[in-house]
Amino acid sequence: MIKEITVQEGQSLVDIAIQEYGSAEGLLKVLKVNPEIEQENELPPGTALMIEGDANNIVVAGFFEARAIKVANSEKYISPITIEPYYAVNYIINGYFQ
């Protein structure tokens, strides 16, 4: 399945990966399907990106999709240290924070 999405204000490639694939690991899928985009590129709002394939974490991706949440924290790069906070989404999904 291939779909087109539009970049929103403040979204980075990592934000798109988390929103569409449920994890930062989806960044590689985004880059593969959109070879004209480089990880270091800033994405202006309105940029069209192609999204292909299934989510790495369907629970997280489904959470954002069901609530029409557009992930936008404007982080351009991700390191192993910054990945851990994204697991907090699981706490939200499981109802620990409301």
Question: How are the SSEs placed, and which strands pair?
Answer:
Layout: E1 2-6, H1 13-21, H2 27-33, E2 48-52, H3 58-66, H4 80-83, H5 88-93
Antiparallel strand pairs: 1-2
Helix pairs in contact: 1-2, 1-3
Mean pLDDT: 76
Report the count of strand segments: 2
Helix content: 25-40%
The strand order across the widest sheet is 1-2
Query: Gyration radius, to the nearest Å?
Result: 13 Å
| Percent of residues in beta strands | 5-15%
Name the shape in a single word. globular
Output the number of helix runs. Answer: 5
Q: Tell me the distance between the termini.
A: 33 Å
Quick overview:
This protein is an alpha+beta fold and 98 residues long.
Explained architecture:
- With 98 residues, this protein is an alpha+beta fold.
- Helices cover 36% and strands 10% of the residues.
- It has 5 helices and 2 strands.
- Strands 1-2 form a two-stranded antiparallel sheet.
- Helix 1 (13-21) packs across helix 2 and helix 1 (13-21) packs across helix 3 (58-66).
- The relative contact order is 0.24.
Supply database-style keywords.
alpha+beta, 5 helices, about 10% strand, about 100 residues, globular, about 35% helix
